[in-house]
Amino acid sequence: MNRVEANDWMVIIALVNSYVFMSLDIIEALSGMGVHFKDIPPNILERQMKAFWLTIPFYNAAVLCAKASILMQYFRVFPTHRMRVVCWVMITILAIYGTWAVISAFLNCIPVAKFWDDSIQGYCLDKTKLWFSNAGMHIATDIAILVIPIPALMAVDLPRKQKIALMIMFAMGGFVCITSVVRLVSLKKIAESSDPTYDNVGAASWSAIECNTGIICACLPTLKPLVARIFPGMVSTFNASRPTRGDTTQRNSDWNGDASTLGAHGEEHEYGAGDPERVLALVPGTGFRSSIKRWTREEEKKLARIAFVPEPRNRPNLTYPRPLPPGSAVPF
After folding, report:
1. How far is residue 126 from each of residues 94, 132, 252, measured CA to CA in Å?
2. Which GO terms of the cellular component aspect does the record hold (predicted)?
């Protein structure tokens, strides 16, 4: 496409937050994470707890931005009114609870230094309840994002090999749900632990797996042109589509390497634009209503002129093909 859209910026933001989160995870590991609490010097323990305090908001930001990127892709690929409403509702929910998750992570304690130093006077939110409520929201939104496209995907008219490839791609979203649940189990372990520095390894590892898998899932749909260029034989295996009436390859394929994710030429390249009849073209020439040919504006004008050619007088029983006027040839 040679341009960057809103969903691309969102996944880039998710990746940057993931880099920061992983860097802080490394600092935790170098500061005694996985070592028994009693064996860590006080100054090293304080450094680990400071890094731990910072990992939480960056983890939440990475996960939330990856989910928002996926929803923006749904908004573009399935441009029906119902799907747009559902996507806007989900993005609003992510924005509200995501803002709370990030701010409450930064300001878990007032003053914030009380997070790593209990001797300081102040107030802290209940860490266990906060972590579990945020984890529950992550799991709920993961499941919702996985379920939202199922009705649309059921209507996709694809050959079996292509449908299997599509299902495998969306099954990766199911793996994100599994990682969220496993992370919740790890959080329960650390919440009940009397040796949190030793028991935090599982929660930190699964948090990293969850946010990075979410980023991978958000990027998977855009990789087809790259795979087609590097491994053309692999993609050609999945391109044996059913015959259709008319050449829909260039007009209907939103995922071609040089095509826009919108529909016909000349449409505004913004969210909300596009033809509601536009296909989900994971491969050239297939998708929703794949047999419908899309005309350019000039072709439509020519067709309109042909449609209004007057009938010849005194020839009611025309039984042979009627020649068309000069200059009004069908544009295909």
Report:
1. 22, 10, 52
2. membrane
